[in-house]
Amino acid sequence: MYTAEQALDRAEFVGNPIMSSRLDSIHFNQVAGKTMVARFRDGELVRNDVNGNAQAIYYLQEDDDPALLGLLVITCSNMTFEFEDQFVSYITPRVSLDWHMYPMDKIPADQPLTLGWFKWQADRRPDKNDVFTRTSIRESQREQYEKIRQPKFAISKKIDARR
Prior knowledge:
Blueprint: E1 2-4, E2 7-14, E3 18-22, E4 28-32, E5 35-41, E6 44-60, E7 70-84, E8 87-94, E9 98-103, H1 128-133, H2 142-147, H3 154-162
Antiparallel strand pairs: 1-2, 2-5, 3-4, 4-6, 5-6, 6-7, 7-8, 7-9
């Protein structure tokens, strides 16, 4: 995470990150790639760049209507999501684009509704209070680890002697 002027500016995620949101008990918007760079303005997410093997399973909705209109499935090299008022306003896929859009009643039976490794684990998800108060995060064990005697290696002694 990077800050500018004491505010969150951007966050970079590596190692096949996934961005998801729950729409109801069985429908989830999901976006994955090799890396993601999320950009913030005034504490709000405004853009997310998904780079490398970008994949999205995204349900289409009208602005204020919770009804699901269709399913958008995208695979491409890179993809950008732009946000307004905490909702996706634009999706821009780039390079090697393969996409399908289905009305809700015409989604093929063999079309996966989740990315292969996706699991919604709501019980493991911390809320904002947990993050800032560290109530559900384990206590620091730094003092106990500092008390453990470190092994001495012959090469370490030689390096210390040369200093």
